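Reading a protein record of the kind used here takes only a little practice. These numbers are not coordinates but entries in a learned vocabulary of local backbone shapes. Here is one such record, which you should read through line by line.
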Amino acid sequence: MPTSTLYICYFGLREPLVQTQVLPYLRQLVAAGFEVHLLTFEPRLREKWTPEAIAAQRLELAAAEGIGWHALGYHKSPSLPATLYDIAAGARFSARLIRRHGIQLIHARSHVAAAMGAAAKRLTGRPLVFDIRGFFPEEYVDAGVWPAGGRLFRLAKRAERRLLEASDGFVVLTEKAREILFPGGIEGHDARGRPVEVIPCCVDMGRFRAAEDLTKAEARRELGLADDRRVMVYVGALGGWYLTGEMADLLALAHAEDARTFSLILTQSPPEMIAAALRERGVSDADFLVRGVAPADIPRYLKAADIAVSFIKPCFSKLSSSPTKLAEYLASGLPVICNAGVGDVDAVIEGDRVGVVVRELSRESYSAALAEVEALRRDPETDARCRASAARRFDLETVGGARYRRLYERVLKK
């Protein structure tokens, strides 16, 4: 009988995060012989999903992916009561699923899902894997939502401590997060001997190898770009944690220093968030493109680029972050300009010599970084070095899938 797991995710199935950072890992588990059940929480469930659509999606996931999909409604407001309601509903539903299908392991993605998983564990006795996606209480403080040391922060930290105490195994995204949360642990375990795996946000390297059939010249022709342009690319959201203004400063300086520069921004955020900032800094509309792109098409667009950018707010909570964009850039052979203080990014960039770390957000630092990354771009070994770094650190199969399987085996052997 195959090992079975229930993966609890407090997001909707159609959300990009689930499509790119949940389902690919679950496919790896299915391919390794695990029986996988996925529980998601769908905003406006009855409005967005008809019973027929739910049945069709469930059948498709079961037939094509080997994943059993289950859905509950997500409730947004009032915030705390709605979340508590979802936790209670998710715990009860999870316990029923576990008993009905004989599920052996609970895997909870993030704190809210872990609260459901901990309650389901108490009801069923199944072990719990806490997949810690970030420092949730600190994120709210760093974002300015909660005051540091305030009542909500203290309550969240108390709940987090209880979840850590109740769990049987852990996933963190960065080595820095492991060191902060589990000091004193050795050889992949915490101080109590519970297994801990560091699993960064990984990518399917096959998607990027497939883009090798497309030449850089062909990719640029699709965008209407001349071969002599220096193309700088950014992938991902704008605003919030992402330093959009600082990135615009860097790109504008790149344009000023080299008129051949073209900025390619691939985002689902409102285009004017970056377009207006670039225009204000003197970049003409003919020299940049802002476009929303499906995740499956990212490798083709990155093929047209020369240099990639990743600027994220450096703060305590971001020491736990693993930017997916970094893995995508390196898998495309692109050297990266990034700022310091985000997860393990500094160690990857400098240790593997695949980009430049900006330690001060200033014009002088940007100019120096542009000169350094230009030298990397012209180094014929940089492309292969970036791809090798991605394969070693961020490969979905050999890193992500393998470490999830190893964690499951260790938890179930306890």
